[in-house]
Amino acid sequence: MKRVSAVPAIVLFACSVAGAQEIQGDRVVVPARNSSRPRLVKVETHNGGIIIKAFSGANVEVETRGHEVRRPAQTKDGTMHRINLPPTGLEVEEEDNVVTVRLNPSGDGDLVINVPVNTSVNATAHNGPITIEGVHGEITAQSHNGKLNLINVAGTVVANTHNEAVKVVMDQVDPSKPLSFASWNGNIDVTLPADFKSNIKLKARNGEIWSDFDVKLMPGQTVAEKNPTDKGFKIKTDSTYSGTINGGGVDATFSTYNGNIYIRKH
Q1: Sign of the alpha-carbon dihedral angle for 57, 151, 253, 111
Q2: pTM score
Q3: What is the mean pLDDT of the segment spanning 242-247?
């Protein structure tokens, strides 16, 4: 196992130039040791966002960026100024084509990662947004408090956030693996290829469902529950709707409790 911590990262790798409103942090480059098969990049941060973009390189490039500080930069009398510290506690491990990236829970910076196009991603941000762009592979993105924004991705997607919206644009869909898009408090907005074939499940408890696909709905599922006294039973209808797009195909679930669902086609 190859492991790189934040301190040697500063010594061994040059730091990238961050934007004017960002605090420059650590940068780590993980060389490609086996480019004959796709990598898996696993990322976790507690108090910051995750940005993952596909690029033409063969390595995985990881850097940290601090947030813009909006408080006054100096004391009222001007005698002292605040020192803006970069996020610390970056940890990167690589083993058997799996790259694991973590940021210390006490840090509040963002992780910015460049990956080869054909890369699978498992990203978790407890309190922050996740952006994934141009990646082709098996993608899992989950956040407790943060938007999910997956743009021009391909393969399969499992996207789940508790508080915020989910927006996904897929260029291609792997027909052999299920898709799932869920939020408790936020809209679900998914764009799929026009020839997308799917068996879908839809649930919007306090919202509406919109689509420019021709969705063929099936009757709601009826569930019978036995009365605890054995003197009767109760019938209820499941609030999840099932249907098909383009005759049926890959399983896909769209679910939100407080929000709308939008299923769009290219």
Answers
A1: positive
A2: 0.82
A3: 96
